Every structure is written in structure tokens, then in C-alpha cells.
């Protein structure tokens, strides 16, 4: 289990124009990954890309252009942990960054715990050198949300959609810069995956660094540092001019803590309800 319990929260923006061009929420994730690659902390990054039609695909990216090409994948719906085996067995990598949802970070932690003392424990524990969690309000069933709700109920063809964004105020659906649809959280609650309704982690407590955009002004990312190794990666990216950062303001920090608390309470309450 993670022993370190740092919690430093920053609002961050990438200093790389190309990255800012594809990541409209500040680009901190990509810049931290590029910095970790350039610093040789990792040889590859396990990320999720959109393989077309908003369908997720787990990919191992080994340079900035692959990261940029795959930016903005629908993370909650992909099995990011399969990328660990792919990176080791198919790419022959010894050091990778794992980017995923809070539950995937917890899953990885459990794999380590269970695997300790077995023949494969060394591979996993020494290969994943950086864990970056993405804030997660919940993942939604692709068929139900896209086909039933967005396409059938609202008449928005999936082929026109370029981006789905779920923020504290609900779902935003875009075609390029144009917003096609906005729906509040309560309107899409029924489309949430069953497992997500008992989830109690919003930021990714089992990661080195969490990244999201809630809590920071538009065009900036929110970054939470949880461990000393996460801090090292973050400080190197600052020092080498990949990112600019300042501590988040109180309102931003309060919002993140409130959402974490609400998700935890709702998840535990639903779990208790199901046990009855
Ligand atoms: S809500 Fe929880 S279980 Fe669902 S994808 Fe997010 S982190 Fe995973």
C-alpha cells in the first residue's frame, strides 16, 4: 500500500503550444508524461486513445507525437491495466507510466499486493514507475449513453461528436468547438455503470499524481501530488520548463474535497444498500 500521503494541489498549464493546442484543459497530463519520457524516468506511457467513433483503445506511447496523436481518450471505459502486460511482453519496456482511472490505480495496487512473493511480482512492481490517475465522476455505458440517450433521445448523431466531457455540472457534447448538448448529472445518472455507483474514489488515492480540470480556471489543469516520486516528476517538469504551476486557490481545493467527500459517501451508502 502507498505509505506517503502528501497532498499538494496546483493549477497547471503546459508551456508547450502544440500540447495546449490539442488539450484544452491545460495539457498538464501530456506535459508531465513528455517530461518523464525526456527525463528517462519512463520509456513508455500507457494511455487510452479514441480508436474512432469514441471507442477507447489502450495504447503504449513512447514519444511526444504518439501522446499528442492519442490525446483525449475516453479513459473510464478502457482496460488500461492490460497495457502493463503489453508494455512488458510486446514492447520489452522496463519502465512505464500508467495513466488511468482511480479504480485502475487501486486495481494495480491490489495486483502488487497479491503478486508479492510470486514469480511475476517483480516485473509489475519495478516496471510501473509513475501512476497518474484522472479525476473520475463515473464511467458510463457506451451503448446506453451514446446510442440511447444522445443519439436516440436527443437526435445528435454519434458521427458528428468529436468530444464528450463530464464535469461537475454534467455532460458536455461537442463537435469541434461547438457544444451540441449539455445535460446535468442527474439526467445521465441512469446511464452510469453499476460498478461506478459504489465507487468511493474521485481523485485516485492510489496514484503518485492525480490530474483533472475541476477546481482550476478554464484552460488550466488541476494536479494533486500524492507521493514523493510524484513530486519529483512534477518538480522536474517545472524546472525544465514543461509546465507552469501555482498552488490552487481555496475555492478550488474546497470543491475537490467536497466532490471527493460526496462521491465517497454516495459510494459507501450504495454499497451498504446493496448488502441489505
Ligand atoms: S467511477 Fe470509480 S469505478 Fe467507475 S470508472 Fe471511475 S474510478 Fe472507476
How are the SSEs placed, and which strands pair?
Blueprint: E1 8-14, H1 17-22, H2 28-38, E2 44-50, E3 56-61, H3 64-69, H4 82-90, E4 96-100, H5 102-115, H6 121-127, E5 128-134, H7 142-153, E6 163-167, E7 170-175, E8 178-183, H8 185-188, E9 209-212, E10 221-225, H9 228-239, E11 243-247, H10 250-275
Parallel strand pairs: 2-4, 4-5, 5-9
Antiparallel strand pairs: 1-10, 1-11, 2-3, 6-7, 7-8, 9-10
Helix pairs in contact: 2-9, 5-6
The structure holds iron/sulfur cluster.
How would you describe this structure to a colleague?
The chain is of the alpha/beta class and 276 residues long. Helices cover 39% and strands 23% of the residues. The chain has an eight-stranded mixed β-sheet with strand order 3-2-4-5-9-10-1-11, sandwiched between helices. Strand 2 and strand 3 form a beta hairpin. Helix 2 packs across helix 9. The longest helix has 26 residues. Bound molecules: iron/sulfur cluster. The site of iron/sulfur cluster (SF4) has 11 residues, from helix 5. Iron/sulfur cluster binds next to helix 5.
Give descriptors for this structure.
single chain, about 280 residues, alpha/beta, eight-stranded mixed β-sheet, three-stranded antiparallel β-sheet, 10 helices, 11 strands, about 40% helix, binds iron/sulfur cluster
The helical percent reads 25-40%
Q: What is the string of SSEs from the N terminus onward? A: EHHEEHHEHHEHEEEHEEHEH
* Average pLDDT level: 89
Determine the N-to-C terminus distance: 30 Å
What is Rg? 18 Å
Amino acid at each position: 500500500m502507498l505509505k506517503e500521503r502528501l497532498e499538494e494541489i496546483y493549477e497547471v498549464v503546459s508551456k508547450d503550444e502544440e500540447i495546449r493546442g490539442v488539450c484544452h484543459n491545460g495539457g498538464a497530463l501530456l506535459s508531465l508524461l513528455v517530461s518523464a519520457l525526456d527525463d528517462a524516468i519512463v520509456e513508455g506511457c500507457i494511455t487510452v486513445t479514441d480508436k474512432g467513433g469514441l471507442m477507447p483503445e489502450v495504447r503504449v506511447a513512447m514519444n511526444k507525437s504518439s501522446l499528442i496523436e492519442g490525446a483525449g481518450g475516453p479513459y473510464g471505459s478502457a482496460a488500461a491495466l492490460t497495457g502493463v502486460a503489453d508494455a512488458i511482453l510486446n514492447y520489452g519496456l522496463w519502465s512505464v507510466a500508467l495513466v488511468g482511472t482511480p479504480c485502475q490505480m487501486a486495481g494495480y495496487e491490489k495486483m502488487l499486493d497479491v503478486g508479492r512473493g510470486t514469480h511475476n511480482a517483480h516485473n509489475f512492481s519495478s516496471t510501473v514507475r509513475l501512476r497518474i490517475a484522472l479525476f473520475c465522476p463515473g464511467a458510463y455505458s457506451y451503448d446506453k449513453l451514446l446510442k440511447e440517450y444522445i443519439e436516440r433521445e436527443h437526435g445528435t448523431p454519434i458521427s458528428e461528436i468529436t468530444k464528450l466531457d463530464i464535469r461537475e455540472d454534467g455532460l458536455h457534447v461537442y463537435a469541434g468547438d461547438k457544444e451540441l448538448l449539455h445535460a446535468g448529472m442527474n439526467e445521465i445518472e441512469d446511464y452510469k455503470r453499476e460498478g461506478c455507483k459504489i465507487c468511493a474514489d474521485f481523485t485516485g488515492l492510489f496514484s503518485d499524481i492525480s490530474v483533472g480540470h475541476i477546481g482550476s480556471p478554464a484552460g488550466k489543469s488541476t494536479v494533486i501530488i500524492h507521493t514523493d516520486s510524484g513530486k519529483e516528476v512534477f518538480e522536474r517538469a517545472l524546472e525544465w520548463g514543461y509546465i507552469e504551476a501555482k498552488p490552487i486557490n481555496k475555492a478550488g481545493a474546497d470543491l475537490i474535497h467536497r466532490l471527493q467527500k460526496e462521491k465517497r459517501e454516495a459510494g459507501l451508502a450504495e454499497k451498504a444498500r446493496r448488502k441489505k
